[in-house]
Amino acid sequence: xxxxxxxAAPDVMALPSGLLIRGRGLSxxxxxxxxxxxxxxxxxxxxxxxxxQARWVRWPDFRLPADPADARNxxxxxxxxxxxxxxxxxxLGGNGRTxxxxxxxxxLDGVPNDQAVAYVRxxxxxxxxxxxxxxxxxxxxM
Length: 142
Description:
5-stranded mixed β-sheet; 5 strands
């Protein structure tokens, strides 16, 4: 397995299983340290190419995924990839869509739906999951 994320690094979130996933905002510079081995990008338009494997979920800012089934599959793929590599989940700012996706991934890893937003806000960013619709999406995810 490649070197894992540093669990003490900013924006690296530990899941209940111990797996680590980094969230970030693409509007910020790439953080120092190892590169992702897989990334899940949550944007309204297709992201630019990167030198690591990536998957794109069409997801307009402040909204919900255009295709919820595709998003769920992408979240499951990100969780599976975290078993053997460094997974990054990112949108433009790193809060709303990224926080929502991280909450859904946490649910797939065993966090109860009604606790997932608080889990991500405590372990990733306090302002993760920005809108009421995103919070509802997390509560009803699966």
